[in-house]
């Protein structure tokens, strides 16, 4: 195989990778998750992922302030209660398959 053929094959593989990643995101978005409170199930792709952050104030002469990434959460569309995902790592991994992501910063 010459250089041109290899480059063409790499481009084709790259396009296929993008297509497969899109399909994976769609498949993960179809996953149903249950609410801790009402037990009703919702598709991941219909939910908003809430990424929490908490503030650490400056300390000493050299310590600057900064934000820390907290746990993931989502609001149940049925009972409107916030589900924490700190103990549901398998759902937290689906973060990029949620309908959208919102950042919450709390001091």
Output the keywords:
4-stranded mixed beta sheet, 107 residues
Indicate the topology:
Layout: H1 3-29, E1 32-34, E2 41-43, E3 48-56, E4 66-75, E5 82-84, H2 89-92, E6 100-106
Parallel strand pairs: 3-6
Antiparallel strand pairs: 1-2, 3-4, 4-5
Explain what this protein looks like in three dimensions.
The protein is α+β, with helices and mostly antiparallel strands and 107 residues long. The protein has one domain (31-106). 29% of the residues lie in helices and 33% in strands. Strands 5-4-3-6 form a four-stranded mixed beta sheet, with no helix packed on it. A two-stranded antiparallel sheet has the order 1-2. Strand 1 (32-34) and strand 2 (41-43) form a beta hairpin. The longest helix has 27 residues, at 3-29. The protein is flat, with a radius of gyration of 20 Å.
Which strand order spans the largest sheet, edge to edge or round the barrel? 5-4-3-6
How many angstroms does the end-to-end distance come to? Answer: 59 Å
Total count of strands: 6
Percentage of β-strand residues: 25-35%
What is the residue-mean pLDDT, rounded to a whole number?
A: 91
Q: How many distinct folded domains?
A: 1
Q: Estimate the helix proportion, in percent.
A: 25-40%
Low-confidence parts lasting 5 or more residues at pLDDT below 50?
none
Radius of gyration: 20 Å
Class by alpha and beta content: alpha+beta
The biggest beta sheet reads:
4 strands, mixed
Our count of helices gives 2
Q: Quick one: overall form?
A: flat
Order of helices and strands: HEEEEEHE
């Amino acid at each position: 195989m010459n250089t041109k053929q290899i480059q063409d094959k790499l481009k084709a593989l790259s396009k296929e990778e993008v297509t497969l990643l899109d399909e994976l995101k769609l498949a993960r978005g179809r996953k149903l998750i249950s609410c801790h409170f009402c037990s009703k199930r919702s598709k991941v792709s219909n939910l908003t992922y809430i990424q929490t952050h908490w503030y650490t104030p400056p300390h000493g002469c050299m310590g600057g302030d900064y934000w820390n990434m907290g746990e993931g959460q989502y609001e149940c569309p049925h009972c409107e209660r916030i589900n924490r995902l700190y103990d549901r790592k398998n759902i937290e991994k689906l973060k990029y398959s949620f309908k959208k992501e919102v950042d919450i910063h709390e001091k």
